[in-house]
From TrEMBL:
Organism of provenance: Oryza barthii
KW Heme (keyword) present: no
Protein name (Swiss-Prot/TrEMBL): Pentacotripeptide-repeat region of PRORP domain-containing protein
Keywords assigned by UniProt, alphabetized: Repeat, Transit peptide
Protein family according to the UniProt entry: Belongs to the PPR family. P subfamily.
Region (Disordered): 36-60
Gene3D superfamilies named in the record: Tetratricopeptide repeat domain
Amino acid sequence: MARRLLLLHHLRRRYSVSVSSAEDMVVSSLRILSSASPSEPTTLPPPTIHPDPDATATSPTTTAAAAALLSPADRLRGVFLLKPPGRAALHRALSSTGIDAAAALSPEVLSGVVSHGNFSGAATVDFFDWAIANSKLPPSVDTCNIVIRALGRRKFFAFFEPALEIMRKNGVSPDISTLEIIIDSLIAARHVNTAIQLINTDHFGLGVWQTCQRKEIFTVLINCLCRRSHVGLASSLLQASRGETIDLDNHMYNEVIGGWARFGRVDKVEHFWETMLEDGLVPDQVSYCHLIEALGRANRAEEALQVFEKMVHEGYCPTTMAYNALIFNFISVGDFDRCIKYYKDMLDNNCPPNIDTYRKMIRAFLRERKVADALQMFDEMLSRGILPSTGMITLFIEPLCTFGPPHAALLIYKRSRKAGCRISMKAYKLLLERLAMFGKSGTVLQIWEEMQESGHPSDKEIYEFIVNGLCNVGKVDAAVSVVEESIRKGFCLGRVVYGKLNNKLLEMNKVETAYNLFKKVRDARVIANSLFQHPLMRLWCQEIDLITDSSVWNDTYDNDLSAWAHGRHQVNQHSVRTTYSLLITDWSCAELEADSKGIGVGMETSCDMGSEYSFWSMANTLPNNPGLIRSLR
């Protein structure tokens, strides 16, 4: 008992020192990582302790190293991990990063700081206070709305008022777009009553009632309610406001009609259509489009076609929105002939198709395995200058990798890449897996090289797909080289893939090669499995949360951490940022656990088992097991 009390006292004394030493330690560790040979393990140095009481002081060497390794957003976010005491200390620490306040208020940097990771509401407001107070010119309302939107997305509603107060003090007045962001955030978080009360009360001190009319504010509320599927409440508010001073217009009615149309409620659409006529309003093209959509969702495609023809007969020029509603209706009933017919009619009437038209049609063709029509539509989309997003390309490639040869998926990949589109990691994995299954080893290696050129790091699955593809065509020597490279980078391949390669080697009488590979894989698995057998290591992984925001955790963090732990990581810009974040996060959160668990961070401590462990020795031998840390959290 006395030994444990002495240990806790020792830990508290060691943690009362400057946090700036942690930053110096991290930068020195990153230098070692970047200069170390990939084949030699790297040992992280213990943190140096300086008695400097200023926790926010940073040396020029540290600032220069951080500028070379980290993006501006990461450097600014790292300041809050050091937890400077007080507003003045925080402002000095932010200014010492070498990033000007005007640059910090740029949309890219500001969004990267406040919209990613696990930034708290207080940290968001403090950073916004520093940036707007030290900027020579006041930012625009759109720039300030980035902060308001980030607070609302994470449900930090209590920090709306401090952020708005900072805006007003610096001469930036909130407008109707700010109000829309706040109302939409409240409704998305199911605080519908609070959002409705904003019409009559200035709950957050917005002050937009001085510049905006009541009709504009009511329109924003109706839009947000319908967008978040609260159409019934929006309908009740619209009915209740008919006899008041608010002049209802077509836009409000169209929002409510469109909300009911998405649910296929034709009766509600017809009711508000009649109400619109009673109020002296004439339905426009948008109203007809919503009626066509509602009839299509109610499986009444023929009636929707009659409404479309009636709209044209009354003198309304058909728009892209109307054609899309009609085409989507035919897709839902499986009538692809009329779908293509009205698509061509759209082109003849000079109604340019948009990205929604192509996305819906291509996905429908792929779902029905009409690959030739899907490829033709994809070529037309690219020829018109409409570039698909990264997610759309993945949606197109995914079904093509579930049936037949991978030729069509490869065509979409090549044409998208030629057009300048970015391919996702998931799309690369789907392609590599499918190509390896069909024995296209040459194409597999080519796509793997293109994937690395695009900045995507290779992980365990990628190596397994490549080894599997090489084994399928009998290129075992190349497969052995790939396995050795994966081991050097800290990845242990699965037993199924390794067993397949080992059997191929034995079939070809390459016993010596198989034995040498067996020894390397055995040693790698010993390193990967041995440390987690110790109960202290399991406790450490459960109690110390390496990255607290699970929304940004993915397999890339697991792989980078595993490879870094083995000391064999080939450092690139992404992995350095990941390692830096892991080290800083560990340093900042481990103090909370040290007193209760007796686990040392940056120092060696004695435990009840009589073993000597340190944070750095445990982290330096952390095994490669993607997903294990996530499962223990």
